[in-house]
Design goal:
The chain is α+β, with helices and mostly antiparallel strands. The protein is 50% helix and 20% strand.
Length: 379
């Protein structure tokens, strides 16, 4: 029972810590991605004419809070003698507040309404050694779409200056490959007039994501996709699900090993009680009744040990959640100070049924010895 208790407690604790890490990752990615994103199925950009739905019509959908147009593409950014290839996003002045990026600003000001201002992700700002107060502009290079000059390659690029005005940190890979500028500057750099890369849809607090997504999908037609936050990071969420499954399998295997102690315990008990078994059998106790007795003993060992383990695991997780007993390291080195813990009811349900199943299986294997060795002899 103690072995099953320890295995169950470990299973609950590890699953809860994994849930906490998963929630932390998902939360940070979801802070960066809009609740819904409209993209063209083919091509990098599209116009409102191709979409056949205006921003006003999208904002009129029940539950929609705001609609933002975004233009993005890869650009080469140089600053002093350093350079990096990154994704540039052209956004409106309202975008930082709606997306939550304004709250992620760690230096300067996330004001894309400022003419020719550029906001860097923390990773890029570190690589380029960006200084917000030295007034040295960053240079943005983008290939001209309609003009090439192989004699002078530099004439094949659109070049614009942008003054660093802010640095944001989302604690996701976007910090390493994202910069933001006013959408007017992006259109001028990319040589577009009304084209956009995608439309970001932001919802009211109590809006139904599924209903709004279904409605907008019907409005935009088959030429466009409407993705929620999970679909925008499909690879990430698939990876998390696979990792979760592997974790269940590994810890479940550990639990199976611990539960196999039931076979040894019941085997010893059957040997010890063989004379009592024979007497009861002679007095009229059926084979089914005798097997049920030992099956019940094995099930009780597993269930009581499992319930006690789940209770201990719950106490440990709550203690970590509220008192942050196990820390990650020195303050300021991580975005959180202690291991995150997130309790999920489904984990307790799955573990409980796993305990019952394995306890019954191991008990069933044990009573085979009872059937073959002790119910055919008379003492």
């Amino acid at each position: 029972m103690l072995g099953i208790m320890a295995s169950t407690a470990a299973l609950i604790i590890v699953l809860s810590v994994f849930n906490g890490m998963q929630d932390l990752i998902v939360t940070n990615f979801n802070r960066f991605n809009p609740p819904l994103k409209i993209e063209a199925r083919e091509g990098k950009v599209f116009t409102s004419y191709e979409l056949r739905v205006t921003s006003y019509e999208l904002e009129s959908v029940e539950g929609v809070k705001a609609v933002e147009q975004v233009l993005s593409d890869l650009v080469l950014v140089t600053y002093h003698d350093k350079q990096i290839l990154t994704t540039l996003y052209g956004v409106s002045r309202n975008y930082p507040g709606l997306s939550g990026l304004a709250a992620m600003t760690i230096d300067g000001d996330f004001d894309t309404g400022m003419q020719n201002g550029i906001v860097f992700g923390a990773g890029i700002a570190g690589l380029l050694s960006v200084g917000l107060h030295d007034y040295v502009p960053a240079k943005l290079y983008y290939p001209k779409r309609n003009k090439k000059n192989f004699m002078n390659p530099m004439e094949a690029f659109q070049v614009h200056n942008a003054r660093p005005i802010g640095v944001f940190a989302s604690y996701t890979p976007y910090d390493e490959n994202s910069v933001f500028v006013p959408i007017a500057l992006a259109q001028e750099l990319f040589d577009y007039e009304s084209e956009i890369s995608y439309i970001a849809i932001y919802l009211d607090e109590n809006a139904s994501l599924q209903k709004v997504q279904k409605k907008i999908t019907q409005m935009v037609g088959e030429g466009f996709t409407v993705k929620n936050q999970m679909e925008q990071e499909a690879l990430l969420f698939r990876t998390i699900k696979v990792e979760n499954l592997i974790l269940y399998l590994i810890l479940g295997f550990v639990f199976v090993i611990a539960a196999f102690n039931i076979i040894g315990i019941l085997g010893m008990l059957i040997i010890e009680k063989k004379q009592d078994i024979s007497i009861l059998h002679t007095l009229g106790a059926s084979k089914t009744l005798l097997k049920k007795v030992f099956l019940m003993v094995g099930a009780m060992i597993g269930i009581f040990g499992g319930l006690l383990g789940m209770f201990i695991g719950l106490i440990c997780c709550l203690a970590q959640q509220y008192f942050e007993i196990i820390t990650l390291g020195s303050a300021g080195s991580f975005i959180i100070t202690a291991y995150p813990v997130s309790l999920a009811l489904k984990d307790f349900v799955v573990v409980f049924f796993l305990i019952i199943l394995i306890s019954l299986l191991t008990s069933g294997l044990s009573i085979q010895r009872l059937k073959t060795n002790y119910l055919t002899n008379k003492y």
